[in-house]
Design a protein that fits this description.
Structural class of chain B: mainly beta
Distance between the termini of chain B: 37 Å
Structural class of chain A: mainly beta
Oligomer: heterodimer
Number of strands of chain B: 11
Order of helices and strands of chain B: EEEEEEEEEEE
Number of helices of chain A: 0
Largest interface: A-B, 25 and 22 residues
Strand content of chain A: over 45%
Helix content of chain A: under 10%
Largest sheet of chain A: 7 strands, mixed
Strand content of chain B: over 45%
Number of strands of chain A: 11
Shape of chain A: globular
Shape of chain B: globular
Radius of gyration of chain A: 13 Å
Number of helices of chain B: 0
Order of helices and strands of chain A: EEEEEEEEEEE
Distance between the termini of chain A: 36 Å
């Protein structure tokens, strides 16, 4: 069964460093998403991406965040200068059908900012 | 008012019991609704979409009430493996793809 894959599974970084979280969506999917989940809290929408541009972003997704689909398979989330409060699980998701929008999630990257 | 609201629980129920969760949403223009399941420290996984006419998948039944802006999930004959957090998810309509998750309702099925 096709799946969304995310790497790394755990990323540890120092405050102020840049991190790039990687995702490979399911191959025929067209819409891509990033979410974060701080430990013990709800899943929060960050950004949706379609046709090589952002289609929607939340207030969390400020100038420190950016997304890219550099090569037609990877979908990346970059955090420019990490803060302690960026520590969370980051999930990537994709869907092929915008109308139904059944999203398939990757296993997540746990980001720990020290 | 929270955009998508759920009772966090936990709901502790014996095996074989029937349990129901509700979820309310604030945006009347919301378009699509889903229940996801999330096991501890794992990714959300789709349980079922929710349709206006109601839909059933085995032991699971989902209902949508647009007038009252709530969604429900009924689990019959609970199994130990049903223990998880159940997430209500709402997709807003329009040209955007904003997806809002509820905080989740934790279910613990007890032997």
């Amino acid at each position: 069964e096709p799946e969304v894959t995310q790497t790394p599974s755990h990323q540890v970084t120092q405050m102020g460093q840049e991190v790039i979280l990687r995702c490979v969506p399911i191959s025929n999917h067209l819409y891509f998403y990033w979410y974060r989940q701080i430990l013990g809290q709800k899943v929060e929408f960050l950004v949706s991406f379609y046709n090589n541009e952002i289609s929607e972003k939340s207030e969390i997704f400020d100038d420190q965040f950016s997304v890219e689909r550099p090569d037609g398979s990877n979908f990346t989330l970059k955090i420019r200068s990490t803060k302690l409060e960026d520590s969370a699980m980051y999930f990537c998701a994709s869907t092929t059908d915008r109308a139904q929008n059944i999203q398939y999630f990757g296993a997540g990257t746990r980001l720990s900012v020290l | 008012r929270k955009e998508v609201e759920q009772d966090p629980g936990p709901f502790n129920v014996p095996e074989g019991a029937t349990v129901a969760f509700n979820c309310t949403y604030s945006n009347s223009a919301s378009q699509s609704f889903f229940w996801y399941r999330q096991d501890c420290r794992k990714e959300p996984k789709l349980l079922m979409s929710v349709y206006s006419s109601g839909n059933e998948d085995g032991r699971f039944t989902a209902q949508l009430n647009r007038a009252s802006q709530y969604i429900s999930l009924l689990i019959r004959d609970s199994k130990l493996s049903d223990s998880a957090t159940y997430l209500c998810v709402v997709l807003e309509s329009g040209g955007y793809q904003k997806v809002t998750f509820g905080t989740g309702t934790k279910l613990q099925v007890i032997p």
